[in-house]
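User: structure tokens for this one?
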Amino acid sequence: MSHTHGAPRAGASLVLATVLTLGFAAVEAAVGWWAGSLALVADAGHMVNDAGALALAAAAAWFARRPASRLHSYGFGRAEFIAALLNSLALLALVAWLAVSAVQRLHNPQPVAGEAVLVTAALGLAINILVAWLLSRGERTLNTRAALLHVAGDLLGSIAALIAGVVITFTGWTPIDPLLSLVIGALIVTSSLRLLREALHGLMEGVPPHLSLEEIGRAMAAVPGVSSVHDLHIWSVAPDEPMLSAHLTLKDLRHWPALLSEMRALLAERYGIEHATLQPEPAEQVVRLVARGDDAASK
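Assistant:
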């Protein structure tokens, strides 16, 4: 029998924020290329990073609605980790290109259309403020809170590009453009490495960062009627979809139905784990197995 695992449907605010961010990133990249501004191109790259985070959050909800199949019994949530991995690697390649270009510009300054940079960066700042407002008024899920952090970093990138436009327009000092593009590149590296680490952690079926294996094991073992917990595993098939499996040694197997309901309620209410596979075992059997092992070792 198949299961369907998934997150709630993405809100309209999340989809609209993705479209706005990605659309203006294309405009900013085109103007930056035409105006000769690395700062604008760098900020466009940062906005693509944010758009990727927003799109992944929306895609996760879309994939979650797809039913599991015989070949994909857990559904398609793991695709979000793969997309995040590819997105972060592409952005790191972009930063490498920006760094090389910025150093070349510092050694061989080139003219920059300061007015175009100033106007475009101001529009970018307005778009980022609008996106932050949309996300703050939409669904307050883990995905949207993470997206808000991305947008906050992008606001800083737009401010850096705006400063470059102001300085070039009023002073003509063009080195400010490659210097600030390096600053924006540093912002992209920070968010991209964090995204890469999260993607690899998820693909390696690591314990979700907001959960503690030891704490959950102690909480489960503290339920009356439970002697101990072993073979405890916690992983995610998609962000915000933690799963758990464990073996529980019980003092009396006759109490298992009530204990199962209590354990599922504990995991769901305290830790947000809705899908748990629990295997009951009688405590007496575990004691006998240990005793037999000790006897064999003594021989």
